[in-house]
Amino acid sequence: MKVTVQMARFALVGVVNTGTYYGCYLALLTVLPYLAAHVIAFVSSMVGSFLLNSYFTYRIRPTWRKFLLFPLTNAANFVITTGGVWLLVDRAGFSSRYAPLVAALAAIPITFVVSRAIMLRPDAQPDTRPKAVEQVR
Q1: What string of DSSP letters covers 83-120?
Q2: What's the pTM?
Q3: How far is CA 72 from CA 3, 78, 133, in A?
Q4: 26 or 42, which is more confident
Q5: Contacts of residue 26, Cβ cutoff 8 Å, sequence gap at least 6
Q6: Main-chain dihedrals φ then ψ at residue 117, nearest 5 degrees
Q7: pLDDT tens digit string along 75-106?
Q8: Rounded to a whole number, what is the distance in angstroms from the first to the last CA of the chain?
Protein backbone atom coordinates (compact mmCIF):
# COMPACT_ATOMS: atom_id res chain seq x y z
CA MET A 1 0.00 0.00 0.00
CA LYS A 2 1.33 3.43 -0.91
CA VAL A 3 2.36 5.86 1.78
CA THR A 4 -0.13 8.46 0.48
CA VAL A 5 -3.01 6.00 0.95
CA GLN A 6 -1.77 5.22 4.45
CA MET A 7 -1.52 8.92 5.21
CA ALA A 8 -5.10 9.49 4.07
CA ARG A 9 -6.34 6.54 6.14
CA PHE A 10 -4.28 7.69 9.11
CA ALA A 11 -5.86 11.13 8.82
CA LEU A 12 -9.36 9.61 8.71
CA VAL A 13 -8.61 7.45 11.76
CA GLY A 14 -7.25 10.58 13.39
CA VAL A 15 -10.53 12.42 12.80
CA VAL A 16 -12.52 9.55 14.30
CA ASN A 17 -10.04 9.20 17.16
CA THR A 18 -10.08 12.93 17.86
CA GLY A 19 -13.88 12.88 17.96
CA THR A 20 -13.79 9.96 20.37
CA TYR A 21 -11.15 11.62 22.51
CA TYR A 22 -12.98 14.95 22.53
CA GLY A 23 -16.33 13.38 23.43
CA CYS A 24 -14.71 11.51 26.33
CA TYR A 25 -12.81 14.63 27.36
CA LEU A 26 -15.95 16.78 27.46
CA ALA A 27 -17.87 14.14 29.40
CA LEU A 28 -15.04 13.73 31.91
CA LEU A 29 -14.55 17.50 32.16
CA THR A 30 -17.91 17.71 33.92
CA VAL A 31 -16.56 15.67 36.87
CA LEU A 32 -12.75 15.98 36.71
CA PRO A 33 -10.13 18.72 36.37
CA TYR A 34 -9.13 19.33 32.76
CA LEU A 35 -5.71 17.59 32.94
CA ALA A 36 -7.19 14.43 34.50
CA ALA A 37 -9.96 14.45 31.89
CA HIS A 38 -7.34 14.86 29.16
CA VAL A 39 -5.16 11.96 30.37
CA ILE A 40 -8.07 9.50 30.77
CA ALA A 41 -9.61 10.43 27.42
CA PHE A 42 -6.21 10.21 25.73
CA VAL A 43 -5.47 6.69 27.03
CA SER A 44 -8.97 5.46 26.12
CA SER A 45 -8.79 6.83 22.61
CA MET A 46 -5.29 5.37 22.15
CA VAL A 47 -6.66 1.83 22.43
CA GLY A 48 -9.25 2.60 19.75
CA SER A 49 -6.59 4.23 17.61
CA PHE A 50 -4.41 1.12 17.78
CA LEU A 51 -7.22 -1.12 16.56
CA LEU A 52 -8.35 1.24 13.80
CA ASN A 53 -4.81 1.81 12.57
CA SER A 54 -4.10 -1.92 12.61
CA TYR A 55 -7.15 -2.97 10.63
CA PHE A 56 -7.88 0.09 8.49
CA THR A 57 -4.74 2.17 8.01
CA TYR A 58 -2.02 -0.46 7.73
CA ARG A 59 -4.15 -3.56 7.10
CA ILE A 60 -2.23 -5.69 9.56
CA ARG A 61 -3.23 -8.13 12.24
CA PRO A 62 -2.87 -6.55 15.66
CA THR A 63 -0.49 -8.34 17.96
CA TRP A 64 0.24 -7.97 21.64
CA ARG A 65 3.78 -6.88 20.82
CA LYS A 66 2.56 -4.05 18.60
CA PHE A 67 -0.13 -3.15 21.13
CA LEU A 68 2.54 -2.85 23.82
CA LEU A 69 4.78 -0.78 21.52
CA PHE A 70 1.94 1.41 20.24
CA PRO A 71 2.01 3.79 23.23
CA LEU A 72 5.53 4.74 22.12
CA THR A 73 3.97 6.12 18.94
CA ASN A 74 1.87 8.40 21.06
CA ALA A 75 4.55 9.48 23.52
CA ALA A 76 5.51 12.52 21.47
CA ASN A 77 1.84 13.20 20.79
CA PHE A 78 1.07 13.02 24.49
CA VAL A 79 3.90 15.38 25.45
CA ILE A 80 3.02 17.88 22.72
CA THR A 81 -0.73 17.85 23.37
CA THR A 82 -0.44 17.86 27.17
CA GLY A 83 2.10 20.67 27.11
CA GLY A 84 0.01 22.47 24.53
CA VAL A 85 -3.18 22.14 26.57
CA TRP A 86 -1.40 23.40 29.66
CA LEU A 87 0.20 26.34 27.82
CA LEU A 88 -3.03 27.29 26.08
CA VAL A 89 -5.21 27.08 29.20
CA ASP A 90 -2.91 28.19 32.02
CA ARG A 91 -0.62 30.60 30.19
CA ALA A 92 -2.67 31.92 27.27
CA GLY A 93 -6.10 31.88 28.93
CA PHE A 94 -7.57 29.72 26.17
CA SER A 95 -10.79 27.81 26.82
CA SER A 96 -10.19 24.34 28.26
CA ARG A 97 -12.98 23.09 25.98
CA TYR A 98 -11.06 23.89 22.77
CA ALA A 99 -7.40 23.79 23.79
CA PRO A 100 -6.96 20.05 23.09
CA LEU A 101 -8.09 20.45 19.49
CA VAL A 102 -5.55 23.20 18.84
CA ALA A 103 -2.74 21.33 20.60
CA ALA A 104 -3.46 18.12 18.66
CA LEU A 105 -2.74 19.76 15.30
CA ALA A 106 0.94 20.17 16.13
CA ALA A 107 1.36 16.48 17.00
CA ILE A 108 -0.17 14.85 13.90
CA PRO A 109 2.91 14.61 11.61
CA ILE A 110 5.14 13.23 14.35
CA THR A 111 2.58 10.64 15.34
CA PHE A 112 2.21 9.37 11.75
CA VAL A 113 5.94 8.85 11.25
CA VAL A 114 6.43 7.00 14.52
CA SER A 115 3.20 5.02 14.14
CA ARG A 116 4.12 3.81 10.66
CA ALA A 117 7.57 2.72 11.81
CA ILE A 118 6.21 0.64 14.68
CA MET A 119 3.08 -0.76 13.05
CA LEU A 120 4.85 -1.92 9.89
CA ARG A 121 7.86 -3.35 11.70
CA PRO A 122 7.77 -7.13 11.46
CA ASP A 123 7.18 -8.98 14.69
CA ALA A 124 10.19 -10.95 15.80
CA GLN A 125 9.88 -14.59 14.80
CA PRO A 126 11.26 -17.20 17.17
CA ASP A 127 14.24 -19.06 15.84
CA THR A 128 12.92 -22.58 15.18
CA ARG A 129 16.01 -23.82 13.41
CA PRO A 130 17.85 -26.64 15.14
CA LYS A 131 20.83 -25.47 17.12
CA ALA A 132 24.21 -26.27 15.66
CA VAL A 133 26.06 -28.90 17.59
CA GLU A 134 29.51 -27.79 18.65
CA GLN A 135 32.27 -29.97 17.39
CA VAL A 136 34.58 -31.29 20.04
CA ARG A 137 38.22 -31.48 19.05
Answers
A1: HHHHIIIIIT---TTTHHHHHHHHHHHHHHHHHHHHHT
A2: 0.67
A3: 21, 10, 40
A4: 26
A5: 97
A6: -65, -40
A7: 878 888 899 999 999 999 999 999 988 888 87
A8: 53
